[in-house]
Amino acid sequence: MEEWLSWLPGLLLGVALSAGSGFRVFIPLLVSNLAARFGLVSVSDNFGWMLSNTATFVLLVASVVEIASYYIAFIDNLLDGIALPASVVAGTLLTTQFLKIDDPTLQWGLGILAGGGVAGTIQAGTSLIRLGSTKFTGGFGNGFFSSFENFLSVAISLISLWIPLIMGVLAILLVFWILKKLFSKKKRATLL
User: Fold this and answer.
1) pLDDT tens digits, 79-104
2) Is the dihedral of CA 63, 65, 68, 74 positive or negative?
3) What is the mean pLDDT of each run of 10 residues along the chain (192 residues)?
4) pTM over 0.85
5) Pairwise CA distance, residues 23 & 151, whole Å
6) What are the pLDDT digits (tens) for 9-38?
7) How deeply is 58 buried, as exposed, middle or buried, from its count of CB atoms within 10 A (0-12, 13-18, 19+)?
8) Which string of DSSP letters, residue by residue, matches the chain?
9) 157 and 60 in contact (C-beta within 8 Å)?
10) Which of 12, 75, 89, 146 is least surrounded, with the fewest CB atoms within 10 Å of its CB?
């Protein structure tokens, strides 16, 4: 039990950052990279590569390209097809890197389930909202939605470094809310 409690802060930090990755894949990875480089957080021993100059440069370029691409109408909907599996991978990495667990099966299993699950669920929800925005505004409302997603990803990532336990719990609650909304719509559609 005591060992499990020692994992909880890292798990909730990873889950919180994974929630940000559900809005933008690379921003939380860049934030965690910079936070680790500046000593604000520590990563597992096998994630030392996340502290490299190369990782910082690649994540910075990927973040800028991702942000810019979401402002191009209809390209943003195409990116959502790529972003779903990418966000699951990013969420898995974000959570796994903060889990200081000796057993790699447990470390990666928790990373996949918790981080990948949170990021994938939030990304699926945002993809559906973007499709609705495209349908009802002809793509003109997508720029506003993209700006809001950018803001959420940055804000969630930065606040997660400050209060990871609260943000992790909020991320889990957000996932349950999204799942409830998705399944209640599906249930209503089946009844009609």
Assistant:
1) 888 999 999 999 999 999 999 888 99
2) negative
3) 76 93 95 94 90 96 94 80 93 94 92 94 86 78 87 94 90 90 68 51
4) yes
5) 9
6) 899 999 999 999 999 999 999 999 999 999
7) middle
8) -HHHHHHHHHHHHHHHHHHHHTT-SHHHHHHHHHHHHTTSS---GGGGGGGSHHHHHHHHHHHHHHHHHTTSTTHHHHHHHHHHHHHHHHHHHHHHTT---S-HHHHHHHIIIIIIHHHHHHHHHHHHHHHHHHHHHTTTTHHHHHHHHHHHHHHHHHHHHHSHHHHHHHHHHHHHHHHHHHHHHHHHHHH-
9) no
10) 75
Burial (0-12, 13-18, 19+ Cβ within 10 Å), 59: buried
Tokens encoding 183:
């399944």
Residues 6+ apart with CB under 8 A from 122: 19, 21, 22, 23, 87, 171, 174, 175, 178
Q: How many CB atoms neighbour CB 131 within 10 A? A: 13
